[in-house]
Amino acid sequence: MTEPDAGSDLAGMKSRAVEAGDHWVLNGTKTYISNGILADVVIVAARTDPDKPHGVTLFLLERGMPGFERGRVLKKMGMKSQDTAELFFRDVRVPKANVLGQVNRGFQHLMQGLAEERLIAACGNVAAARVALDLTREFVRNRKVFGKPLSALQNTRFKLAALDAELDIAQVYVDRCVEQHNLGQLDPVDAARAKLFSSELNGRMVDEGVQLHGGAGYMDEYPICRLYQDERIHRILAGTSEIMKEIIARNILD
Predict the structure, then answer these.
(1) Quick check: helix, strand or coil at residue 44?
(2) Has 138 been annotated as catalytic?
(3) What are the DSSP calls for 117-151, one per residue?
(4) Which of the residues 48, 66, 140, 153 has an alpha carbon 20 to 30 A from that of 244?
(5) CB 73 within 8 A of CB 99
(6) For 46-80, how does the pLDDT look when each residue is reduced to its tens digit (9 = 90+)?
(7) Which of 62, 117, 166, 246 is catalytic?
(8) Residues ≥6 apart with Cβ < 8 Å to 172
(9) pLDDT by residue (tens digit) across 163-206?
(10) Bridge partner list, 6
(11) What SS3 state is found at 66?
(12) What pLDDT, on a 0 to 100 scale, did the predictor assign at position 9?
């Protein structure tokens, strides 16, 4: 979905596919694509009805198709074991059999999966934040400051206590969303709430973890440092926090 000028706002998509006999001709660029180098098949969203903001179709692009090129592996802050790449499509002839779903209904197909994607992100956020809390708890118990463990200082205790409480509350809400999803009843707004709250909480937890580790938290050899780098993206991917707020605001205000 993501392009240089279109991320969370799919209406800004510029990739185009034009019908030509028994195939489509695809042109465009995608960026920040996870596993873009390793993937043998890529689902590409492209505009097929220029007169409609959401006139988008999904296509299955296969490795080796003429005109389908992969760019450089992008250098990232974190999640470095997963490749993230640019993809280029120059007059790629895509057989009509490679259309995924219905023509001009790609946007609707994508919307059906976005709530689940945001719920998956929320589950990961809560899990990662709990790991960060466990790492930090272990560190502050062993780190000595002014002759006593860092965990004995009220500042440390109160910060971790507050985060632990928020984490438990987040877990309960996310678990409830999972139950609703399994019943086929997950409200997209609830998924947005779960993604927003859990990603912001995760960000605060890894940041506080680095702070309580002191200088050690800035060193790559400590897991909390790498976790901080990996988790920063979660306030951006699957819809930024700002987009989540807009979804929630529309529900309560419009």
Answers:
(1) strand
(2) no
(3) HHHHHHHHHHHHHHHHHHHHHHHHHH-EETTEEGG
(4) 48
(5) no
(6) 999 988 878 999 999 999 999 999 999 999 999 99
(7) 117
(8) none
(9) 999 999 999 999 999 999 999 999 999 999 999 999 999 999 99
(10) 3
(11) coil
(12) 67
Residues 202 and 125: beta-carbon distance below 8 Å: yes
SS3 50: coil
Residue type, 75: K
User: What is the sign of the dihedral through the CA atoms of 234, 106, 48 and 95?
Assistant: positive
Confidence at residue 8, expressed as pLDDT on a 0 to 100 scale: 65
Helices (H), 143-240: 154-182, 188-213, 223-231
Two tokens, residue 231: 């988790």
> Using one digit for the tens of pLDDT, what is the confidence trace for 200-224?
999 999 999 999 999 999 999 999 9
Residue with tokens 């945001």: 118
Q: Is 239 exposed, middle or buried (0-12, 13-18, 19+ CB in 10 A)?
A: buried
